[in-house]
Amino acid sequence: MWRVLRSSVTLAPVPPVGEVLRRYPNAGEPLACEPLTKGLLNHGYRVSTSSGSYFLKHHLDDSTGDRATIVRQHRATRRLQSIGVPVAPPLADADGDTVTVIDGRCYALHPWVDGRHRVGAQLTTDQSRRLGALLGTVHTGLEQVMADGLDVGSGPPGPGPGYGSPDADDTFALIGQLLTAARGRHRRDSFDELAEHRLVERRRLLEQHAHRRPPTPEDPATGWVHGDFHPLNLLYRGADPVAIVDWDRLGVQPRAEEAVRAAAIFFVRPAGHLELEKVRAYARAYRRAAGAGAAELAAAVHRVWWERLNDFWILRWRYSLHDRRADPQFPAVSALAVWWTREYDAVCEAFTG
Known about the structure:
- This protein is of the alpha+beta class and 353 residues long.
- The chain is 43% helix and 14% strand.
- The protein folds into two domains: 3-111, Phosphorylase Kinase, domain 1; 120-165 and 200-352, Aminoglycoside phosphotransferase (APH), C-terminal lobe (Aminoglycoside 3'-phosphotransferase, Chain: A, domain 2, Alpha-Beta Complex), CATH 3.90.1200.
- It contains eleven helices and ten strands.
- The longest helix has 22 residues, at 125-146.
């Protein structure tokens, strides 16, 4: 008799654990299934069996959850592992498949990796350097494995037809909608007050800096990237990274922009500023490992800064989708856009110096 261990902070449904495990002869009998609460898009579970522990992933995201896309991710991670990149590829079932489809839903069984997530404040300068080198190795490794016979579709790699910078006019309209929502709540709380303050502040900043919208580059330096490289997708054991997880956003994008976005998540402090000394160590190691030049990083800094200045995804989740899971991220994320604008030159120098 196996148990479902319910968490009070998750609404994840009970997965068909027994049916999944029957396809893995060596997985053992199910004993317990515990929902994990860190992810925002897909459901994950720690499954305990008579033979050990596993991570069961239920792929939900419409844009990345089809079987063919998941299989491509799995093949990529298995090849990355073969060249020494720390990943946790899924297990193959008795038929050699890594995706189990039950009632139209896709599941994958991974080995359980003991480790912890670490944010930039928990990393030394040397560990920050190693983090940058790791991401550079991921990008060069993906370039190798995705060009090495892996079916990635036809046509030259590119950032996709939607690649471009946000239009400030669209953002002004969105700010107006979000202000109406924040001000119109029947029972306003401190979050709504902060949201209103930041929206008004951001509108003023956009009015001052609208002329700095980056042009769409004619030939961006694109490549295969993880797509979602941040602390919750990297596991440490002690001082060492042991597994990069959640490859759902694997795709072709400007490489340096992923490096800048990752740094803006890893190294942001609660007050909304970046630890620039750690950023500098990280960026130098990344440029060396990825073979990226300072000009490529400078362009990425400008594009990601503009992206952050126009981005309100947390407020859209709260006010449009009535989903508050990302609310705790808002104070630091919203303050970062303001601080980054004020310290633009220092941030650029940290990534390129």
